[in-house]
Amino acid sequence: MTEAATKSCEGCGGAISHDQIVNRHAGLVHGVLLCPACVQKKREEAIAAQKAAAAARPATDVADEKIALDEDLESPAKGPSKIRSFAQGSTLAGAHHESDLKRPVSATNEPPTRIRTFHSKLTPAALAHMDDLINEWIDADPDVYIKNVTTMVGPFEAKHVEQHLIVTIFY
Question: Among 20, 21, 78, 168, fewest CB within 10 Å belongs to which?
Answer without folding.
Answer: 78
